[in-house]
Amino acid sequence: MPRPAAKKTTRKTTRSAKRATASEAVARTPRKLTKPQLIAELNKDLAKEFAALIQYVQHASALTGPQYGAIQAELVVHSNEEHMHAISLSDQIDFLGGVPAVDVGDIHISPDSKIMLEQDLDGELDAISRYKERVAQAEMLQEYGLRRALEDILIVEEEHARDLQDALEL
Ligand SMILES: [Fe+2]
Ligand SMILES: [Fe+2]
């Protein structure tokens, strides 16, 4: 379900990151925060992982056009990897003493296959930017196990963005 306050920030960020490549996705200046604030941010990341996994399931089925055959199979792989990210974040939130949330972020669909892939790429560039910030925040709080888990997720999000950029011939 749409949550207007959160959506405004997300839209602004994804729009400004749209032309960036995976490796150039702009990291936000890391905000210094407390452990409870970090847990709250990780729960927002978790909601976006749940949304991404659902969005990829829908897009993998709904995508049409012979030129998109290879990426269609790749979107199923992405969906499974977003699921793994959700499990990893949920565990990390629990390890930090928080309660993993079950919210689902905004999901974007379209009747147009190219727009679907652009929606997926926007999500990945936003994820790369968020996880770069989150890695720095974990480092600031000396949560090195969390930092490692976030770096593993970040590497996969960068691969996802490159897959989509290739499919979109960017
Ligand atoms: Fe993910
Ligand atoms: Fe991803």
Overview of this structure, please?
This protein is mainly α and 170 residues long. The protein is built from five helices and no strands. The radius of gyration is 15 Å and the shape is globular. It starts with a helix and ends with a helix. Bound molecules: fe (ii) ion (FE2) (2 copies). One fe (ii) ion binds next to α2, α3 and α5.
**Whole-number average pLDDT?**
89
Helix content: over 70%
Q: Let me know the number of strands.
A: 0
* Unreliably modeled segments: 1-18
Secondary structure category = mainly alpha
Radius of gyration: 15 Å
Q: Sheet bearing the most strands, described?
A: none
Assembly state of the chains shown: single chain
What is the string of helix and strand elements?
HHHHH
